[in-house]
Batch of 3 targets.
Target 1
Amino acid sequence: MPVRRAKQPEAAEPESPVVLHKNLTVLTTTDPLLLREIKADKKIGPHLIAELSETTVILAPGSEEAVTRQLLKAGHLPQIRKGTP
Amino acid sequence: MSRDDFFDEEDFLLDDDLAPEEILDLRAVAGTSANEPMSAEERAELAAFFHGYNAEVLKRMANLWAGPRAGTRKEQCVQAMVGVLADPAKLREMIGRLTPFQRAGLGLLMYRGGVAPSVEFAAELLGLGLPFERVGLYYNYGYGYNRGGSGIGALSALMATGLVLDTGIDDLTGTSRQTCYFRHTYVAAVTTFGRVAPLLTVQAPEPLKVEPVEFTGHGRFRRPAEAALPMISLIDALRKEKEILLTNRGRFSKSLINRLVKRVGLDAPAAAETQTPLEEATFFYLQLLMSGRFFTPPGAGGEIRLSTVVDDAIASPYEIQVLNWVRGYRSLKGWHESLPPTVALYSDNAFSANSIHAFRALVLLTLGALPDPERWYAVQAFSDALYARVGDQFSIAYVYPFYTTQRDPTKAERERQAYLQKQHANWQQREEVLLRNMLIGPLFHLGLVELSFAETDDTRQRLRFRLTDLGRTALYDTLRPGSRPMTPAAESLPSEPCWVVQPNFEVIAYLDRASPAQLGFLGRIAERKSLTGAVGVYSITRESVYHSLEAGMAVEAILETLQAGAKHDLPEVVARSIRDWAGRRERIAVYVDASLLEFPDRESRDAELSRKSGLGRPVGDRFVLVEKQGSAAKPGVAVGRTVDYHAVASRCVRVSEEGLLELIPEKADLLVSHELDAIARRVVGNSHQWVLDAKSVGEASQAGFTGEAILSLLGQRSQGGIPAILRVAISRWALKRRSSKVPALGKVTLLQLPTLEIADALAGSRRAAPYLQARLGPQTFLVPSEAARPLGKLLVELGLEATGAFESLEWSPD
């Protein structure tokens, strides 16, 4: 039986100041006003937790389903994408 | 696309009643081709397999396989049998010696994919209408009733040859393998050797002795598209489910079924059909999809999803699809036809439902034994013919054996005739009623039979049926390979215009002209509103188009296909709205499991973006939303630190006893500041510090945080834990009502003695004991307030005049 080798952790490069954030849920809009409108929604707003720009915000972990449902209810048609912009 | 594409052999190994690892795959044991040479290892493996049988069984099997020359010793028998399987010529010779029943039975097993559920297969063997040699006991009281179904004799006869074996149940019990069905407590499925398969083909059953009826009128039937539509609708409804979870008992949840019933809208119209009702239609089709292997096997949490073959399956020609429907219906569990009043099922008992499965298999097979597949037949006549074929051996209830004490042959025969009449009468009230319910229910709704209802008061004579084209393909032709050419493959089917798109977004589809692919397309981009005869009415809505786009369809493909199937130009308003909806979908995007690169400043971010094209999309001042990545992202830039938000949260906060929360920047992630903001106040002028106090906790509490939630959040984030006193404080601060368990402060009297000797003497004194509450130190005692005065008097009496203001000892705690 072939022996499975444990995956070696990727070598970190401590000198690099770049941080990779993996497995986040990010909402983007094409228009800052639209994001403001979404943030003002009482049911969606609390799930938007870290604004990276005026059109991009990070969603609270595990809230993507509730946010999507509420967006649809509010008449929006969000694209749901797994990982890839 | 051929029938075999949908009859994936592996599927047949996954019988619901046995875990895959418990199933013996004899095809693998002895190879899949009769012409392949058998290696020494394979021969050894096969010999070891045969050694699992006892000598008596082996002798009988070897005698059949290799003839009398096989020998009588166990090892000789094993080697002889291995020799037959390993030698193609000997194997052909052995197959040639089989009786017509044995050959037809093995051919049927091959047709079922090499593995078949025992109860169904046993009934089908009886339905072949070929004589077989009965083995051992025939009437088996223990198992005849609801235990693997009645009619076990034919399967036992086939198993006695050693060519058909159970799928490994003996490996569980550890007993010697058996070769008779009735000796088992329960045999889930049977199988045969892979080398036997290529030498056999399916054979049509003997024609039933049933006379057609003359009928020239038109009956009621479901067109193939009508029959396929409920499944297309249900599949579409299932696609909208985020997750399909089975209950602990492996069933669909009631809430899921209720949602689907509401979404698909099948149940009320199907149940309301006066002559051809189908009860619980949604559940029927759901179980049909399940038993037709349209779902993936359940995961660890009971989650299942639609199989990847679904799209191809529902777009394939109806003549191919119908084979899946028949396969699913034959083994369909959980749902059953309306039952005769004399038959009861125990819903949770798998054995109880076996007789229904067996009867379904019997009927489906014997519909392929009609003398002329294009003629009409009275159900009563078909039922009588079926009784004549299997009635003395099969019943969905119980086969009462004939028994007489008469010695006079004439009287005995008279009694036997009376017994047969009684049995037949029971059959008419039981099996015939179920047969009728099968015809007007599932078989009609699946488009397999055309029905006509004669105007007569005799209910037995009223119903007539004939096979539809689809029914003939699925039930008759399939047992006669090569009798009729198969329908061309799906991709070669022409897609003619078959619908009209109206400005009010309704699509009127003419089902008799619609190809399965066109119906599948409509089901995905529109909601079905009604189905009347050959016309289906659909509605294109914002939600339906949105879901189709989310499922990966391109807006131009939607418009092109909609136009290609339309008899006229698309109304401008419809085309414009679809484009508009697609455009609106571009305005908001939610990226699940996305990755972000965080740079120290805008300059370095922009420099990296200009150096590496395709890295991602710039976001804000310092971030890049990475393209083409998943959890194993390799963004292509030097990364100093990786934060995985699926992993345990980073411990990046120091918590002091005073409630100061200090962020450790080099360990922080993008969520922690927000989390701290929710429970504490930022320190002005310091972006890395927060203060947690009664006020901030009170505000968090007002916002919905409980004390436990705050402690949990801090516990996950704190480096070194939360100081115990702060933990107590947070719990208290978060209380919305004052607790009754509060600390009490009071005034006390202390007695301090000058020497240890005096203290010990006093501690041991019986006179002093009532006045001393506790010894706090070597020379210090706690004195109840009310005891101060009497203790003072005692001390004076003992010559130990207390120093200090003696009178001050008289104060009250209040």
Target 2
Amino acid sequence: MKKFDIFKKGLFVENPIFVLLLGLCSALAITTTLTNAIGMGMAVICVLIMSNVIISLLRNIIPNEIRIPVFIVIIATLVKCVQMLMNAYTPALYESLGVFIPLIVVNCIILGRAESFASKNGVFDSLLDALGMGLGYTFAVVVISFFRELIGTGGLSLYNPFDASQVIFDIKIFADYSISLFTQPAGAFITLGCILAFVQFLNIRKENKAKKAEVK
Amino acid sequence: MELVSLFIGLTFVNNVVLSKFYAVCPLLGVSKKPKNALNMGYAVTFVIFVASIVTYALYYFVLEPLKIQYLDLITFILVIASLVQFVEMFLKKTSPEIYKAMGVYLPLITTNCAVLGVALDNISAGYNFIEAAVAGLAVPIGFTIVIYVFATIRERLDIADVPASFKGTPIALITAGIMACALAGIAGLV
Amino acid sequence: MNIWAFVWMAILVAVFIGTYLWNKNTPKPEGCEDMSECSGCNNIACSHHSAHHEEEINNEH
């Protein structure tokens, strides 16, 4: 498989949230604001890259029988390190993401990529796969939080994660007409449902085109 | 009395699935038939209750005295995973009927955010032992109620006239959103 | 360097790997082979996932 395909498939075709439906717990919970979404995406990318690379480096040493336990130990250690680093360098983000940073450990994406890709492929391929999946995850949560924050609060805002007082942008578009349901749990489900319906609509259209081409 | 309000709060108002988003993956993946949903609920209730007590005890009797609180995440996940493996093995050896009904869902509970989430929340909310045990019981009972109701609704959704783009997961998510609205309405109860 | 941290990690990892292997080597009772409930689930860490059964079939050959 060409190198670029490995990277590209994590973005759209096998997007972890929209297609594989993995890791939905965090996708629904932290997408209240754009800053949270980007911060969580960065954390997941870090953990995913490091875990894929380490597991790929160790793939010939780990006995085949106990690979899942070893993966869990490696991923838990990495997540704890990332959590402590975030507590130190990005305290505002750490506060708002709360318990969902440690819950990256049980995020099915990380263990899934480790088991299905990193344990069987070389280091550079695993790195590309991790980067693709991580960026796909970040893209997905950014899309969800874009809609939730825009409709829920009537504006978009982005703060520097390292220094919470520094505002990168803070646009208020229609604060009077915002539907605050979307910042609540119910709105998260509805937003994700509608986005998945759109993805399914695109898939159905693609299948219909393929069927018409076959008939001809 | 505080324990009762804690119980009701965790079961309904701050429901683990619809409000705290912990167990969403099983909600979408497992809840097609109500009977299976109920079986999953039993398995989850048992695991979360025992895990909640064991992780609480380990945190306050091992990690704090030895000053290794930073190992809490690794401790919890390994203890939960070991517990699930042990329960599955125990069921395989002693009761094949229960294993056939519930054992399928046990490995899924290891990567279920709910167990780890409850364990971590017990510590960060500073509960005492009784409160942690009540939380360990209330959270999975709330999960079971939601997943059972959801399964019965999904049975009807499958034969309903849903637009093609919405069939399957999208309409299930929107249903979950409406259920979450309903629970948000009783937020003032506790 | 806190020695107890290493001791505790070693205990945890040993207990986990012990229970994991114990569970893996306990055969499933008859009639439990095909758990078709999980066909739509993408959670590959679950031991019932079909990817693990394909491996066993490949290993037998």
Target 3
Amino acid sequence: MEKETILDLLRREFPDAVRETSVSLGDEIVVIEKEALLPIAGFLRDGPGEFKMLLDLTCVDYFGRKPRFEMVYHFFSLSENRRLRVKAALEEGDLRIASLTPLWKNANWLEREVYDLFGVNFEGHPDLRRIFMYDGFEGYPLRKDYPLRRRQPLIRLKE
Amino acid sequence: MPTRIQKQARQDTMLLNMGPSHPAMHGTIRIMLELDGERILNSEVEVGYLHRGFEKTCEHRTYFNLLPYTDRLNYVSPLINNLGYVMTVEKMLGVEVPERAQYIRVLMSELSRISDHLTCLAAMAMECGAFTVFLYKMKAREFIWDVIEQTTGARMTTSYIRIGGVRADLHPGFDTVLKKAVEETRQVLKDVHGLLDKNKVFLNRTRDVAVMSREDAVAFGWTGPCLRSTGICYDVRKAHPYLIYDQLKWDVPLGERGDNFDRYMVRMKEMEQSLRIIEQAAVRIPKSSPAFVVEGIPPVQAIRESRRQRVRRPVALSPNLEGSEGVRYPDILAEDKGVVVPPKEETYTTIEGLIRHFKFFMRGHGIRPPKGEVYFAVEGGNGELGFYIVSDGTDRPYRLHLRAPCFHIVSALEQLIQGRLVADVIPTFGSMNMIGGELDR
């Protein structure tokens, strides 16, 4: 019998939360419900897959599609030497998702980056504020409806 | 608006700003320290001074046009950035790259890795007071950059590695310059080992300073030399071999304690391994099929002749295009015609070449990967340099995200310097190899 892959395992452990699984160009992909992110991430980290490393975390804005935003997480397992991509869709009206800061330390800055550039709110993040742009910057530059060459007034450094 | 540290600071402590413009802050980064005497109680790192909207810009450029932007990410090793981006697109397209081009890519990315490590350690040593080491390493880097410059035509902003292969073949006389660079670098490494390894001043400032545990290194997403200094063996070139790295013999140097000295040592040893890779690749590289110097008629004459009949003789291109003649294309570029720029002599002398040229550069045409998303990573100077690209089937990426290794590494700085002295910030920060272009994107 073939060894149970991490995708099968996730489907079995979280039958309600895993929407679909696929393999594309050698990358394993899981699409989940956003409510189940924290338990699934915890299971990935401490479970048999040993995905101890949060490689990357970002967001994609599918403008004009519903749901509009999609969070993309890349996990990496040092013991099994494989990557896993986890995706969760976010509605435009409800841009909230659980923060991964309790599980991974680098999630702190990565989530600040996504908050800065996309405006996604991470629930449970200890210090959610802009990281690249300055205080007083309006809008979220990586959204598709933010024009490439829009100019913003410079703010004064000190009152 | 007050920052976090300003809100949380105790009444009896002092707040000190390091940066954004500070000689030891490579590039611009601001570290705010809360000090009790000389001890750091808390700190806050503020990044973003070099944010240029790399990802947003790339969404508005075609796959071919955005290549020069990747040079400006990690500007000390631009060739590895080129490679990471290009290989991600190739993974989407499923392009097969000729063997000689693969060897050239390995040679170039290892040369870049050495120059990256040399720069990092040179700056780190200089900030600890070892100015001689700085000069020695800069000297070695010049030799490496000479090799890169002769082949790619630029020292830093190379844009040399192209989708489907490389821009041009190696420069005539490459072997000689390469040999000289390797010899000089070896000698410099030996000298630096002698100057620093048992140097009491250097050891006091690096040994057991800013120790990173293995668990924390993984939790912070560290990769590259910094992760390996804690003793975890993860190198993308070994773990997910790309190009021809699995055919060459080389080792992954590891540290033990994860302190500043180990980060220095791992980088030093890694340069030796890179030199090993370069030497093997330079010997095993397949020879280019046509004679190296192509005799041909001048371009003006070729264009004049092409008005009457098809030009059958080879055309001698200008020195700027040397190495990218049509006869060399099978060696350096993929056969897939929709992916690579057609040879210049065909563009100017035949109608088919001209059509192909326009089809390649016209808006809405050119490189159009199929719909989908892909993640691919190469081992950059700082660690896993990953690109995540979402394609919607058009000629420009729908979303391009860079996994910058140094972003993860610098996010651990606050923890590393907590409870240490102000002077420890400098070697700690130096050993991390923060590169502003990559960190802030």
